[in-house]
Every structure is written in C-alpha cells, then in structure tokens.
Amino acid sequence: MEKIFVSGGNKLKGKVRIDSAKNSVLPIIASSILTSDTIIIKNAPMLNDVQVICELLKSLGCNISINKIKGEISIDSSKVQEIEPSGELVRRMRASFLVMGPMLARFGKFKISLPGGCNIGTRPIDLHLKGLKALGAEISTEGGVVEVRCNKLKGNKIYLDFPSVGATENIMMASTTAKGVTVLENAAEEPEIEDLANFLNKMGAKIYGAGTDTIIIEGVDRLKGVEYIPIFDRIEAGTFMIAAAITKSKITLENAREYYMKPLVAKLREMGVEITSIEDNVIEVNGNVQLKPVDIKTLPHPGFPTDMQSQIMALLATVKGTSVITETIFENRFMHVSELNRMGCKIKIEGRSAIIEGVEELSGCEVKATDLRAGAALIIAGLVAKGETIVDDIYHIDRGYVNIEEKFRNLGAKVYRREV
Ligand code: EPZ
C-alpha cells in the first residue's frame, strides 16, 4: 500500500497553482443529468471523488470521457436511465447522493441507497428529503433505500432547519425545472453553492441569490449543454496557506481569490500571518512572522470552515500559548487529535472543543489519516516535525487533493509517496 513520507525542517518557497474545487465539481457533474446536451467541465481536478461520481453517472447510462492531460470531463446524459445506482458506490462517497435531485427532476422518480455516515459524523439526509417533499415528492425509505417520486415538481417556499450544503444543492438542482418558483431560506452560503448556481444559470436556469441565505429559483422548461470552469478549491488554497505559516515561509498561490477565503484569511491575519492579494487570482502568503494563539469556532460560511479545522489545529499546535477550537458542524471531527498528539502536540478534547497548548517542537512518527482534511493536517505537521513522519491511509487524502506530495515538493518540501 502507498504511504506519504514527510521529512521536516525545510522552508517553502515559490508558487503553487490551486486546482478547481472538489465540492464544486461534484454537484456540477451531478447536475449534468438535468440536460440531454453535452456538458464540458474544464480545469477539472482529477481526484478520486471525481472518478467515483463519474463512475456512478456511467452506471446510470451517461457517456463520460475524461481527458486527464487537458483536465477536461465531457458528460453526455442523453442516454441516462432511471436505475438504482449500486449501494457500494453510494456508500463509498456520500456526495453520490447529489444525483437524487437531478434524477428526480429528470425522471419523476428515483431510488438510491441511503449514503450512511462516515468517520466525521452520521451525516443525515433529512433536510434533503424535507426539501424534495416540499417540492411535491413522495418519499419512502425501506431496507436502507430511499425512493422519491413526483411526476412534476412544483416550486415552494422551503426553510432549511440548518444551512446544509448538500441539501441546498439537491433542492436547487431539483427546482431548476420545477413548475413555478422555489424560495429556499436559511440556505447554505458556501462559495461552491454560488458556483453551482452560476453553472446552472449558464445552462439556462433562473437562480437568484446564491451565496446568500435566500435563494430564488424560477423553474424553466429545459437546460442546455455548456462548457464551464469551476471555482478554485478554497480548502486546498487554505491548506497551502497554513503550510506556509507553520514553516515560516513565503509562497505565492495562483488561481486563488481572497474574496472566497475571508473567514480563514481573517483568522490567519489575526494570528499575524501576512496575506496580500497581488492580482485577482494571486495571493502572496508570508508566514515568517511571530504567530499568536487564537480561538476558532467552525460555522457555516461565512463562518470559519470545518474543512480547515484540522489543518489550522496543526498550525496552532506549534504556536506558543493556548488556543481553543470548537467544532460545531460535525459531531466527530477530532480524530486527528490523537494522531497529532503522537507527534508531540499537546491537545485536549473537552466536549466539542479542543484545547491546544503550543509546543516548541514536534517529532515525526507513523500516523494515520482519519479523513481527507485530517490527512492534510498530518502532512502540515510533518513539515516542521523533527525526523520523518509517515502518513498511512492516504486514500483519504487523494479524495480531496491532486498530487499533494508533488505540489509540496515543488515548493521545496521533502514529501514523497512510496509503495510499502
Ligand atoms: C459538504 O458536505 C462538503 N462536501 C463537506 O466537505 C463539508 O465539510 C460540509 O459541506 C460542510 O461545509 C461536499 O460538498 C461534497 P452539510 P455536506 O449538509 O453537504 C447536518 C470535505 O472535506 N445535516 O452542510 O454533507 C450534518 O449532520 C467534505 O471536502 C443534517 O442534519 O455537509 C452536519 O452536521 C467533508 N441533515 C451538517 O449538517 C441533512 O439533511 C453539515 O452538513 C444534511 C446535513
């Protein structure tokens, strides 16, 4: 099996180009089912999760070609059929559930196995189902499979109990061709929601207010094929910003916009990191400064992103003083704490908070990735740990980062992937 080996002590320098956002590309691929025309996604990140959702669409009859060199995915859903996807595929990646809204809109019925939880939480889908029910769908769940039926979805006013990203996306996609207007309140405001709406509007949808807590969708008769370049991955960008901070380095991020990274940038600046937008899509990060401890609470956007929690924890573990991180989004997203403590971090969990006492030095050792962002956090810690850090279960990391070791090596870090 493959592991990632990190030798600590190197400073970073130079430029890193950020890939397109996994959490944008996945719903965009799912929504290609809404049209029989061909969709072409450019600058697509060749991630494992992207492969999985393409595999899922192919199993439904979509014709997909992936050009890894050009980073292009072409999707022809003209021959998609209303069949139940394999439960194994759906459970392998929860985001598979994002095909439910588009399939219901296209066929008036759809069956899919419940996605189940994952390491970081039970990951319920009650809000997805509540939204589709409000649009007129009849819903039944039996034997771990959910079936939704409705000949013609009708627009409605929906208030989400929690601004769920996935539920917002499923409801928005299903509403694009519903009869009448849908008003979605307490909607998720993540940049990837805005990007999905921009993609759907380019296809001919009429969506207003995406990126705010109220999204209005006017149903249209049909959507057409388009070419699209998704937004950059703000979590990958944030991961490299934090790597620069922990190694006290100065690096430049290309294809990254500060506007979509405000909560993280504000917190890093509060710590003392110097972050400068050079041009619209270029950010310079200088971590060669004295850093201060901070307190963080993860919240829906524009709050601090839960997907940056483990990475900034690794950074705070090396900052003199006491920092507190409270995780409010997922009920079990502190599994990286025990792995970081193996490296000499001093982190204590109290309920939904982690109390972090900064230490002078970390020591490399064998650790395990427990989710894709936790894996990135262990690499970040390894960059400054004495000796070698060996990260296992790196399949988690490959779900969300393209060639992460190569990108770090190009910045001067000693990060290698080896078969062991
Ligand atoms: C998306 O997951 C992202 N995944 C996650 O990124 C991200 O951590 C999460 O949003 C929060 O920002 C993709 O976009 C593919 P949610 P999603 O629905 O849609 C509760 C990564 O690292 N909830 O906003 O599943 C749920 O229990 C991944 O790239 C309900 O209660 O997130 C959780 O506590 C990890 N009922 C909270 O909302 C529902 O019906 C956030 O879930 C749905 C969600």
Automatic annotation (TrEMBL):
CDD domains per record: UdpNAET
Name of the top EC class for this enzyme: transferase
The UniProt record lists the keyword Cytoplasm: yes
Domain Enolpyruvate transferase: 7-407
Keyword terms of this UniProt record: Cell cycle, Cell division, Cell shape, Cell wall biogenesis/degradation, Cytoplasm, Peptidoglycan synthesis, Pyruvate, Transferase
Binding site for UDP-N-acetyl-alpha-D-glucosamine: R94, R123, P124, I125, D126, L127, D307, I329
EC number: 2.5.1.7
Localization per Swiss-Prot or TrEMBL: Cytoplasm
GO MF, one example: UDP-N-acetylglucosamine 1-carboxyvinyltransferase activity
A cellular-component GO term for this protein: cytoplasm
Residues given in the record as phosphoenolpyruvate binding sites: K22, N23
Function as written in the Swiss-Prot or TrEMBL entry: Cell wall formation. Adds enolpyruvyl to UDP-N-acetylglucosamine.
Protein name: UDP-N-acetylglucosamine 1-carboxyvinyltransferase
